[in-house]
């Protein structure tokens, strides 16, 4: 009989502490949707009341299936529950569960909090009780638990037991500075499990010694049944336990797959590579090529003995089948794979496709050619869908762009301030009629966006609610001839969100490509009736 393991994602809080990462509310909404696609049980959205972004994010529930969790801290020393604004803000958030953090290292209690050990235990009990009274699922993060255990074992354990007795669903043991090794974690968790039931114990590991995944697995072996981590292992300092590595290990590896079950389905596992890469694109970061399971090099083999043998019997050279995690085998001299990935993505997008259709090969070749030029479709579903539909059938030509021009002028305004103004002119043809629009903006892309959406003829009503929600740029290679990739995220009043991509040595051209794809996808999904259609698969002409 298998036991249930619960996965708890802290990307939106721990990940926000990563140097160079700053989530907006819109970012958090998108990332939440991505995490849910991975089958995670709990999604911790941040700390309501701590900053305006998290407070706004918790103004409504943001998950469909996962347990939406707010983070906070136990009540402060010397204050009552009703007189602690920080705790009250967390309790009032639109959340299914509340995870409170508490000091469990006696040194931190007396020095950092400036309170007594007994008062800290009482604060844990009262705070967990308050969460229960609000009808939320309570849990406690035992901060610096392993350090506290080594310094004063009895007190660290007393904190965990106090939370458990007060009704915490989960008591999570935190390796907050990431310095504990797997053998220590396993021994300590096993001892704690003698006092707190394993099915109420969790592990929260940081990666400062490169052991966060190993420490999480060690805790599971010792009895813990909740694992906390982040997408791609992001987090402060060296990061957190990487859920993208943990999930396939738990589902595919002997000793875990035969003993435990998770909320991640086989189909969700098969999309893990795409989810990991889409998240990197959202962060505007290059994916780690050698990341376990999902990296581009994870199942890559160079020419020679291994390359010839792997084609005959892949299982002898690969520790898992790459398709199980949505990756693919790469034989670097002669790439033999890729079709299954394209078919899986077509199925996800609802595009009918036959494995033996020769147009699948044409689409695959085009995707490979574009990837070599710098295109990336992992986080640009709308652009990929347009590309695929052009290959497998047709995409209506709602409008044709005849030309566009952007001017940037720096000048003094009427009150003597030095300002920079962008002006864009776009000429399009709709049903044989040429339309020309001019738009001004605070930058070239903003001006282009305003110009192209200013007058789209009879299609104008379909795009009235279209908004540009996010814009990311990545320089793919250095020098004056650098290639630029632009990722644009759009949304509409119905709550639809989609992403498009453009690639060019010219950032304005790349941006315009993504803008045109965004509008085309919107018209396609809105059911706009075109004047005529352009049949595929003349993909090389599509930019």
UniProtKB/TrEMBL annotation:
Specify whether Amino-acid biosynthesis is a keyword of the entry. yes
Pathway membership, UniProt: Amino-acid biosynthesis; L-isoleucine biosynthesis; 2-oxobutanoate from pyruvate: step 1/3
In terms of PROSITE patterns, this protein maps to: AIPM_HOMOCIT_SYNTH_1 (PS00815), AIPM_HOMOCIT_SYNTH_2 (PS00816), PYR_CT (PS50991)
Superkingdom, taxonomy of origin: Bacteria
- What is the catalytic activity of this protein? pyruvate + acetyl-CoA + H2O = (3R)-citramalate + CoA + H(+)
User: What InterPro entries does this protein's entry cite?
Assistant: 2-isopropylmalate_synth_dimer, AIPM/Hcit_synth_CS, Aldolase_TIM, Citramal_synthase, LeuA/HCS_post-cat, LeuA_allosteric_dom_sf, PYR_CT
EC identifiers of the protein? 2.3.3.21
Q: Where is the Pyruvate carboxyltransferase domain?
A: 5-270
Gene Ontology biological-process entries? isoleucine biosynthetic process; L-leucine biosynthetic process
Q: Which family does it belong to?
A: Belongs to the alpha-IPM synthase/homocitrate synthase family.
In Swiss-Prot or TrEMBL terms, this protein is called: Citramalate synthase
